[in-house]
């Protein structure tokens, strides 16, 4: 609803304007009046109207002088001049000079005057949207710079500390009245190919962090939450007024457990949050953020939980004796399994390693079980080199960097994935006698089978690369070089072939088939089907005698 100010020294004219239009229908809910420019100036600053209709010549201050003084202070207000024929040229000049949107010519002609008022109201809406967009852009710019700062905190903490002053200026807070609380959130799809949209998770993450702040610290809300997204994680820093006014942590964590479990069930996603220790000392923050990141690995032995405290994750680790090693006998057994390409024995062996690691949790420090995973991969690399199986630039860099540990919610799933990769290595070695072309056919057959298994989902190249352990860039080049098509064309052809099979079934509607093949838009499905099959789905179905 809008507010109108009428500035006119003739009472009859003011009254006439108030009753000339059906202002309620125009969504003008409040009308105020002033009898000269000086009073109008005061009234406008007090009421802040959306629309001002003003006469030009009035005692004490004319309308144009009033407008000139109000424009800087009321940038979203739309000004309309009320003028007679003898001042018409003057009014037009005022509009050309800016600051005045339109004029109403006395005596008023209803249709023209109504069109002018409607135009003014549209201008009000446009200005509001423009200002909101501008505010959003400024906000996004701040968040973007804040995101860069969090990234710097992870990668070059000393440089991040040196930029503290810029951070304060950006978010307008004083250095002696705030603290920092680090958070890390990870999300993993429960189904193979059903990831939560990154934009959605980023928006929800800020809400979860703010809810956690309110639960953990009495009468405290985050002054600002800045986040940085990397792969399937969001690193967050909440800037607080007072980071030490703690309440009952147990109740707060229970509340967040319920929230994350519900959000995960609704989105078919496993969501985990690690809460770091708050600090008012910026040089500590980089270390605390990394510590918070590691706390997410507690999910491997604290099954069923979604929220973890970083302090617990750090203090629970005991002596160096709480460790597991890959001894020489294990290395020989694993190497023999690789040489014989015995997938079943490889998986049995990896299952034993999984149980051995879990038996040492939580006393074993993360660095120790990461070292164990590195030892496993260290056995496989010489095997691959010996059998001329390319490793670097072909296989995912997640294998060498151990980044794959962030992609699983349980140790069981992690070791199963490693077992599949090792079985693949063994198969490639065993099939070394096959030609390159035959090996490529096997790769594409495996990928096609995976896509068909998840045909209703949006299976991205990254998902396929992760599933089959490849570097996505290598896989993309392989499609182009060997099949002379990109990955999306490969997926589209599989989907349309599947659609053709389903169209032979008269019990299925075409709209249902569209969804079953992974298309969210029926129009897009029909268009794509036509490109591949050179006919519509309905025409294809008629070929088989179904109408």
Automatic annotation (TrEMBL):
Listed SMART domains: HTH_ARAC (SM00342), REC (SM00448)
Pfam families: HTH_18, Response_reg
PTM-bearing positions, type 4-aspartylphosphate: 55
Cellular localization per UniProt: Cytoplasm
Signal peptide: none
Keyword terms: Cytoplasm, DNA-binding, Phosphoprotein, Transcription, Transcription regulation, Two-component regulatory system
Limits of the Response regulatory domain: 3-121
Domain named HTH araC/xylS-type: residues: 445-543
Protein name: Response regulator
Annotated source species: Paenibacillus chondroitinus
């Amino acid at each position: 609803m809008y507010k109108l100010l009428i500035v006119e020294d003739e009472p009859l004219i003011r009254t006439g304007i108030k009753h000339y239009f059906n202002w309620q229908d125009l969504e003008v809910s409040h009308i105020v009046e002033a009898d000269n420019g000086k009073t109008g100036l005061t009234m406008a600053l007090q009421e802040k109207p959306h629309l001002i209709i003003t006469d030009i010549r009035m005692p004490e201050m004319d309308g144009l002088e009033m407008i000139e003084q109000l424009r800087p202070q009321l940038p979203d207000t739309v000004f309309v001049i009320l003028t007679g024929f003898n001042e018409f040229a003057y009014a037009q000049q005022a509009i050309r000079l800016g600051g005045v949107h339109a004029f109403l010519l006395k005596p008023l002609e209803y249709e023209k005057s109504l069109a002018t008022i409607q135009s003014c109201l549209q201008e009000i809406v446009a200005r509001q949207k423009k200002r909101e967009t501008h505010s959003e852009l400024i906000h996004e710019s701040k968040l973007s710079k804040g995101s860069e700062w969090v990234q710097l905190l992870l990668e070059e903490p000393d440089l991040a500390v040196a930029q503290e002053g810029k951070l304060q200026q950006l978010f307008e807070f004083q250095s002696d009245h705030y603290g920092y609380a680090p958070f890390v959130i990870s999300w993993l799809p429960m189904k193979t190919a059903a990831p939560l949209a990154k934009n959605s998770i980023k928006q929800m993450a800020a809400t979860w962090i703010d809810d956690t702040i309110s639960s953990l610290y009495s009468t405290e809300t985050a002054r600002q939450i800045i986040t940085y997204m990397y792969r399937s994680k969001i690193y967050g820093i909440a800037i607080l007024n007072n980071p030490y006014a703690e309440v009952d942590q147990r109740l707060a964590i229970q509340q967040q457990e319920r929230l994350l479990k519900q959000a995960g069930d609704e989105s078919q996603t496993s969501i985990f949050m690690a809460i770091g220790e708050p600090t008012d000392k910026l040089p500590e923050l980089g270390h605390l953020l990394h510590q918070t990141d590691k706390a997410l690995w507690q999910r491997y032995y604290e099954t069923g939980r979604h929220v973890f405290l970083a302090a617990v994750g750090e203090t629970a680790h005991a002596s160096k004796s709480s460790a597991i090693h890959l001894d020489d006998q294990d290395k020989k057994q694993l190497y023999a399994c690789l040489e014989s390409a015995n997938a079943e024995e490889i998986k049995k062996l990896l299952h034993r390693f999984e149980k051995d690691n879990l038996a040492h949790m939580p006393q074993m420090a993360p660095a120790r079980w990461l070292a164990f995973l590195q030892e496993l991969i260290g056995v496989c690399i010489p095997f691959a080199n010996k059998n001329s199986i390319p490793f670097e630039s072909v296989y995912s860099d997640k294998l060498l960097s151990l980044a794959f540990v962030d992609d699983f919610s349980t140790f069981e799933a992690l070791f199963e994935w490693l077992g599949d990769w090792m079985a693949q290595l063994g198969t490639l070695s065993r099939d070394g006698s096959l030609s390159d072309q035959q090996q490529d056919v096997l790769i594409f057959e495996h990928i096609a089978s995976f896509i068909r298994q998840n045909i209703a989902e949006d299976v991205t190249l990254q998902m396929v690369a992760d599933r089959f352990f490849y570097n996505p860039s290598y896989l993309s080049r392989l499609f182009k070089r060997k099949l002379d098509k990109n990955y999306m064309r490969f997926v589209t052809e599989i989907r349309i072939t599947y659609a053709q099979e389903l169209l032979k079934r008269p019990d299925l509607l075409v709209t249902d088939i569209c969804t079953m093949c992974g298309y969210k838009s029926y129009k897009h499905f029909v268009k794509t089907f036509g490109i591949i099959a050179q006919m519509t789905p309905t025409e294809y179905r008629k070929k088989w005698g179904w109408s």
